[in-house]
Amino acid sequence: MDAFTLPEWAALAPPLLLALTALVLFAYDSINPRSTNRPVLAGVAVVGALASLVTAVWFTLAGTGADGPDAGYDLWFVVGDSVTGTGAIDLFGGQLVVDQMALFFMIVVAVVTALVAVASYDYMAGHAYQAEYYSLLLLAATGMSTMAAANSLVTIFIALELASLPSYALVAILKDNRGSVEAGLKYFLIGALSSAIFVYGISLVYGATGHLQLEAIAEMIATGEADAYSGLLGLGIVMLIGGFAFKTASVPFHFWAPEAYEGAPAPIAAFLSSASKAAGFVILFRVFTTAFPLETTTAVIGLDWTIAFIILAIVTMTVGNFAAATQQNVKRMLAYSSVGHAGYALIGLAALTVDGGELVLGAAMMHLLVYGFMNTGAFLFVGLAEYWGVGRTFDAYNGLAARAPVACAALAVFMFSLAGIPPFGGFWSKYFLFTGALEAASANSALLLVAAALVVNSALSLYYYSRLVKAVWINDADPSLDRDFGGTPTGLYAAILFAAVMTVVLLPAFGPVADLAIDAASAVLVS
Prior knowledge:
It comes from Natronosalvus hydrolyticus. By secondary structure, this protein is mainly α.
C-alpha cells in the first residue's frame, strides 16, 4: 500500500496538537467562564495529550527523521521523505529539527501530560480556575515538546520560556494555599535568575561565533573562526550549563525543586519533575552534541566540557540522595530524589568521548523515559494521599495499605524501580548508564568515580524508598488519627495503575526502547 505523504511541517504535529488543545480550552473558558465542568475540561486535555502521543509514536514507527530506510512498517501516512530515510527534518531554516531524539522526548512529554490530566480530574475537584489549569498545563507541555525540536539558541530560549511561564502559574494555582503561592513565587524568582544567566550565555556564544543556529556554531568552531574569542566562548558555555542546570534541577540550581514540588498540586509536581526534566535534558543533549562537538570545542577553549558534567553528575546525584535520606516529608523526599535522578541522567554527557558515546547517551534517554512513568506515578500516589487528607510525613502514611492495597502495591513498584531493583524498568536504565560509564572509562579514568557514585547513591536511595514502602505496608497506623478517607478517586487510581503497569512492562520490552534510544543518540552524535 502506498503511504500518503504529509508536508514536512507536519512533523511538528505533536507540539501543534498540544497547542491546539490549549487554544480549545481557552475558547471554552471565554464562552463559559468559571466553568467547573471537569469531565469536559479534563477530557479535552487528555484527548489532546493522547493525540500528541499517538502522532509522535506513529512518526517514530514511520521512520520520520531517521537515517536509512524505515523498518518496513505498512503505515497509512508518512512525513516528507520518511520512507526513504533521508534523515532529520529541518524546518524554518534549521531553527527547528525533527529527528528520532525529538520524537522520543515528545513521547515522554505527551505520556506524562496525559497521566497528569487524568489524575487532575479528581485532584482539582472543588478548586477554582479549572479551565485555566488545564490550559496552562497544555501550554507548558507545548513548550516542553517544542524544546525537543529546538535547534537554535533563540528557539530553545523561546520554547524554554513557553514551558516555564505557565509552570510558575501552575505551581501557585492553589490561591488559598499559602504554601502553593509561596512556592510559585520562589520558583519564579529563581527561574528569572536562571533565564538571565542563560540569555547572557547565549549572547556570549553569539558574540564569539556570530551564529545562534547550532550547526552554524559548530561550523564556526571547527573552522577556527572562533579561536580569537575562546575566553568569551568558554564563559558562554559555562553560563549555558547554568541555565540548563536550573531546568533539570541540577546542583547548584536545584533549590527551587523541593520548595516548588512541596507547594504545588501533586499532579503538577509530577509534571515538573518528569516532563519538565526530560525537556531540559533534550535541549542539553542537543546543544552539547551539536553546537559544541567535544574535540573541536576542547581545542578552542582549552578545556574538556565533559569534566564539568562529570563534576555536576557526581555532586548532583550525591546531594540529591543524601538530602532525600534525611527528609521526614514524603513530598520533599521525592523532590530531592528527583535531583538525584538528574545526576544519573547527566552521566549521558559526562561519559561522552571523542570516539562516541552512543550507549551512554542512549542510556540517559532510556532512563528519562522510564523515569517519566515511575516518578510520575510516585507523585500521583502522594496526590492520592493528599486527596484523602493524609498528612505529609512518613508516619502519616503508616498502614495505608489496609485502605488502598492496589495503590500501595503500585507505590512499591515505583519505589523499587526508582532504586533500580529488578524486575522493574528502572533497573535496566541504570544498568546501561553504569556499563556506559565503565566503557567510556578507558578514555577518561574519572568516569570510574561516576560509575562508583552511581552504585553508592543507588544503594542509598534504596534506604529511603524502602522506608516509604515499609510505612504503608508494615507499620501500623496511629489509632489516634481520624482517617476518614472518603470515596475512591477514579482518575487518580487509573493514572497510578497505568504508570505502574508501564514501569513493569518496560523491563521485558526494553529491547526496542534501547534500540530506539541508542539509534537516536547515534544519529545526533554523527550529525
